[in-house]
Write a structure and sequence with these properties.
four-stranded antiparallel sheet; 2 helices; single chain; disordered N terminus
Length: 156
């Protein structure tokens, strides 16, 4: 069963061209590790994100805690922004299974046109100890080719 989950995770993560950059053991007497993965936003190639999450080798579900940090690592152009979902919900750009029963870690990109910022929200799709775990990071467009003066943008 564990191998099936690993295979499913690898297929899911491969679609986002991610790779594991660190594997930190939480100690000699635990089967849990902190995994750190990196991936490039599939539509905004100038943004690289790093996520950390706990993986429990002998459990049916991994903990829901996670952290995310995204930074500009290349050009961000106006043409790239034309291809993204600009709704208030944004779009899921990364997803991986965290249990055998419906828990996923997802990352959603949301465009804040008012501040000209890309927001990246990581979250668990299943409630854990009374709350849905989540983390937020942002990538400002200031200084990129995609930046537009928010005061000059006309809203419909």
């Amino acid at each position: 069963m564990k191998y099936w989950l690993i295979a499913l995770t690898l297929v899911t993560l491969t679609a986002c061209s991610d790779k594991e950059v660190a594997d930190v053991s939480l100690g000699l007497f635990t089967t849990k590790d902190i995994k750190i993965q990196t991936f490039t936003d599939p539509k905004i190639a100038g943004v690289t994100c790093h996520i950390s999450h706990v993986e429990a080798d002998l459990d049916f579900a991994d903990p829901s805690d996670m952290s995310i940090a995204c930074r500009q690592t290349g050009d961000i152009t106006a043409a790239m922004l034309q291809n993204i979902d600009r709704s208030k919900n944004g779009e899921v750009i990364f997803s991986t299974s965290k249990s055998i029963l419906f828990k996923h870690l997802k990352i959603r990109r949301i465009f804040d046109s008012g501040s000209q910022t890309l927001l990246y929200l990581s979250y668990s799709t299943k409630e854990s100890t009374g709350s849905y775990k989540h983390s937020l990071t942002s990538v400002p467009l200031w200084g990129t080719q995609a930046w537009q003066d928010p005061n000059a943008i006309k809203t419909p």
